[in-house]
Amino acid sequence: MSNVSMHVAETVAAFALLVIGVYLMKCKGLLKAEDSNLFSRLLTQAVLPATIFYQLWVNRLSGATVVPVLIMFLMGVVALILSWAAGTALKFDRKSTGALMIVSSFGSSSLIGYPIIQYAFANNPRALAEGIVISEIGVGLPIFIFCPAVAIWFGELTDGRSDLRKLARDYFRSPIFAAVVLGLLLSRIDLPAGMPFVETAKDAFQMIQGALVVIAAVILGLQLSFRPLKGFGKLIVVSIAIQMLFQPWFNALLAKLWHVNPENTQVLVLVSAMPAAILGPVFAARYNCAASTATLLTFTHIVISPILVPAVFALCSR
After folding, report:
1. What is the dihedral of CA 185, 186, 189, 192, to 10 degrees?
2. Is the pTM of this model over 0.90?
């Protein structure tokens, strides 16, 4: 367990260095902040779906992931309630409470979690496949359902219902959702050995997967900003406490009670300890729900993650 924890620490620190390197290039004018839109589309429309499809295709999954998915989904709902209660008790304004709920409930499983799982469990390819299912169904789907709803309710929007329906349609039509479905289906088909183009296709998908880490670091580095906000201290303390401390601890507890196997428990803890999802500030900006607050909260999560994620993983995955 200690070796895995050390590998996690090294992986998060290396990823943070990549992000900082891109941030410095942006400061030097070698890259522009608006370039993140291009890289984001490349990641979400091509690299991430290809990675998801490939991992699910080559690693047939069992029913062992059902319970971790349920745990992850349940914990996201609990975190929404806790962050709303904290925002109400601390008398944050309506939009700040909404931003707190968005940032504190769902982690960056795909953008940061997959690269970390990929390298932290380098000798266990099933770990990434398990992590994809746990995060895409237990985290990704709730993000597209609950986060826009929270941003609409706590922000300012005149036609919330139609936009919410559109977001749901967009998710189910997205390449990521299609990759999950097609990968799970193809993994159940036994293709004959030596079938033309199959091995070539797998090699191509593996090459695409190799770009995941670099593109993720580029996106975060281009979006990174350190502009301070008044009254930010309480928000970040509450957000980190719920998202990066309480969630992995409670998930580990539920995993133990529901007899989840050790490998899936490790993946579950690692995914739930991730910093806030990058999509959170996107939804907050779209629906005028304290976008600057959500953005700075998310970036602060990322800055602290090289220290906090390995420590939480070591403590909670025992």
Report:
1. 170
2. no
Q: Give me the CATH number covering residue 276.
A: 1.20.1530.20
Residues 61, 284: Cα–Cα separation, whole Å: 35
CA 115 – CA 151 distance, rounded (Å): 28
Domain range enclosing 46: 2-316
Residue 197 has pLDDT above 50, yes or no: yes
pLDDT at residue 134, as a whole number: 79
Residue 186 exposure: Cα atoms within 13 Å on the Cβ side: 17
SS3 for the chain is CHHHHHHHHHHHHHHHHHHHHHHHHHHCCCCCCCHHHHHHHHHHHHHHHHHHHHHHHHCCCCHHHHHHHHHHHHHHHHHHHHHHHHHHHCCCCHHHHHHHHHHHHCECHHHHHHHHHHHHCCCCHHHHHHHHHHHHHHHHHHHHHHHHHHHHHHCCCCCHHHHHHHHHHHHHCCHHHHHHHHHHHHHCCCCCCCCCCHHHHHHHHHHHHCCHHHHHHHHHHHHCCCCCCCCHHHHHHHHHHHHHHHHHHHHHHHHHHCCCCHHHHHHHHHHHCCCECCHHHHHHHHCCCCHHHHHHHHHHHHHHHHHHHHHHHHHHCC
DSSP β-bridge partners for residue 107: 276
Contact call for residues 49 and 179 (beta carbons, < 8 A): yes
| Alpha-carbon span 119 to 58, nearest angstrom | 17
Q: How many domains in the chain? A: 1
CB burial class (10 A; 0-12, 13-18, 19+) of residue 246?
A: middle
Exposed, middle or buried: residue 119 (CB in 10 Å: 0-12, 13-18, 19+)?
Answer: middle
Mention every residue, 6+ apart, whose C-beta is less than 8 A from residue 87: 96, 97, 100, 101, 238
* % pLDDT > 90, the chain: 16
Residue with tokens 């929007």: 157
